[in-house]
Amino acid sequence: VQLVESGGGSVQQGGSLRLSCVASGFTFKNFAMSWYRQVLGKERELVALITNDGKSRYADFVRGRYTISRDNAKNTIFLEMNGLEAGAEATYYCQTQLFRPKADYWGRGPQVIVPS
Question: Which of 78, 41, 44 is nearest to 59 (CA)?
Fold first, then answer.
């Protein structure tokens, strides 16, 4: 299983960024996918999740500014982030959980930098 993210970088406050994650090594369309983030000095936290049938859930702090989506034909998920604040500066990880055996898989995590 491999999860390869792209799209991180530096963006001004109020700006937008789109993260992508290409998955391989499993039947992508059958599994939920998530984006997590880890702010320096804090625990990793869920940002957004998308189920195998396209339903999405978001952390409260997203407040309608982010959109998670998936393209099953390309084994890819996306996170569109708008209205970025300094507090959004973090490492963002793509994640999935497979079964039999149950295991979590993570990407390496691109950094998102939002200078204050």
Answer: 44
Express each pLDDT in 33-57 by its tens digit.
999 999 999 999 999 999 999 999 9
CA 34/CA 16 separation, integer angstroms:
19
Vertex 45, ends 77 and 59: CA angle to 5°? 70
In the numeric block, which tokens belong to residue 2?
A: 């491999």
What's the CA gap between 31 and 39, in Å, rounded?
A: 26
Instruction: Give the CB-side neighbour count of residue 51, counting CA atoms within 13 A.
Output: 5
SS3 60: helix
Phi (first) and psi of residue 26, to 5 degrees: -155, 170
pLDDT band at 100 (very low <50, low <70, confident <90, very high): confident
